[in-house]
Design brief:
The complex is a heterodimer. Chain A is of the alpha+beta class. Chain A is 36% helix and 12% strand. Chain B has a four-stranded antiparallel sheet, with helices on one face. Classes of the chains: A alpha+beta, B alpha+beta. Chains A and B meet through strand 1, strand 4, helix 1, strand 5 and strand 9 of A and strand 3, strand 4, strand 5, strand 6 and strand 7 of B.
Chain lengths: 209, 178
């Protein structure tokens, strides 16, 4: 059995079993069966598969007199400028992020506080949380004691998340937060009404005694 | 000084798995795989310049679901029919019990037959695998049906080719002003 290495253009690993397949036989239009696992595969190979980009030696060139030099390594020749701050960087300090090239300082500053959208890996939806907390009494009425918490929770999530960023592809959906807020207020009003009603009943029964 | 968030467009196909609902979006220079689970979203990015191959592999998940739904739906329908037919020949007391059992069984049978039909209409299942120049194969969580996966590839292929045809940024040739 010939197992393909990840970036060998002569063979491509079957995604199911790792068996080496000839990439020129895989086409978008027709499926071929892997001879080893019989999985039916179709697909497309793109220019970088056939001519992978040169990775370089990992060492920066030494700067000569008059050469642009790296901001972080003054002895190295600058290869690029940072797309964010404009500092010159050598090949060692170049941090490619898709088509952008950043310096290590900009990359590390973007890692912490969601400054670079390319580095966001997770988002919490405050508006969806508000809606969920608001809708819970409608779908799970049998756990009614919990609703003393869900009303205030819906209001808190809607208000706290009002200015927070929403989904990365869909954007901020404030209408969802508004529905959650309204449902939370309704739940709270029902609780206040019930407490008032019981307090009234209790007071009436005490006065009649 | 946070950078503006890129504009995303939906690509065909969606998926459902342990990590929630999945969908692939495309921005100017990268794909974004979004896995949403009620109140949170997790993201994975694949830059178009780095994608070397995209392979669609047929899976037998759809077939397995069809067998499960078919057996439960068909079996339930047969059971309900048998109970109803049996009630016609049973005595008075057993007749009512059998009819109640038949009525109770039929909604479950109908539910599984509806699920069977939906699964059949959605078509065969697949898994999309994407190879990058930096990290080998990645299994995408969407699309998971063959038809949308083919449309996904047809829409994505020209964009990847265009991104890879674009020249790399030129090296510096000017002296710095430090």
């Amino acid at each position: 059995m010939s197992v393909a290495t990840p970036l060998d253009p002569a063979v491509v690993a079957c995604p199911a079993c790792g068996f080496g397949l000839a990439p020129e036989t895989i086409r978008r239009e027709n499926e071929i069966a892997c001879p080893h696992c019989h999985a039916l595969v179709s697909g497309e190979f793109f220019p970088v598969f056939w001519s992978p980009p040169a990775t370089g030696s990992g060492l920066a060139d030494r700067a000569d007199d008059g050469d642009a030099v790296c901001f972080f390594h003054p002895e190295n020749r600058a290869a690029l400028s940072c797309d964010r701050c404009g500092r010159f960087v050598c090949t060692v300090c170049d941090m490619p992020l898709g088509a952008r090239h950043l310096c290590p300082t900009c990359l590390s500053s973007g890692l912490g506080a969601e400054k670079l959208p390319e580095l966001i890996v997770r988002r919490f939806h405050w508006s969806n949380s508000a809606l969920l907390a608001g809708l819970l009494p409608l779908v799970a009425f049998f756990i009614w004691p919990v609703f003393v918490v869900t009303g205030p929770l819906a209001i808190f999530c809607a208000l706290f998340g009002w200015k927070r960023p929403g989904s990365l592809p869909r954007g901020r959906r404030r209408w969802v937060a508004v529905i959650g807020l309204v449902l939370g207020v309704v739940q709270l009003a029902v609780w206040i009404g019930l407490i008032g009603m019981f307090a009234n009943l209790f007071a009436n029964s005490n006065s009649s005694e | 000084m946070s950078a503006p968030e890129p504009t995303y467009r939906k690509l065909p196909g969606r998926g459902l798995g342990w990590s929630g609902f999945a969908r692939i979006w495309i921005a100017e220079e990268h794909l974004l795989e979004v896995n949403s689970l009620l109140v949170s979203e997790r993201y994975r990015r694949f830059f178009l310049r780095d994608i070397s191959a995209l392979v669609i592999r047929r899976t037998k998940v759809g077939l397995a679901w069809n067998i499960v739904h078919g057996v439960l739906g068909g079996g339930g329908a047969l059971l309900a029919g048998g109970l109803w037919w049996g009630s016609a020949t049973a005595d008075q007391g057993a007749q009512e019990v059998l009819q109640v059992l038949a009525v109770m069984t039929s909604p479950f049978a109908a539910l599984f037959l509806v699920l069977f039909s939906i699964n059949l209409l959605l078509g065969p299942t697949c898994r999309c695998h994407l190879q990058t120049t930096t990290a080998g194969w990645h299994a995408l969580t969407a699309p998971t049906r063959l038809g949308p996966a083919r449309r996904f590839l047809a829409r994505l292929a020209p964009l990847i080719e265009a991104a890879q045809a674009a020249p790399a940024p030129p090296p510096l040739a000017t002296e710095p002003s430090r």
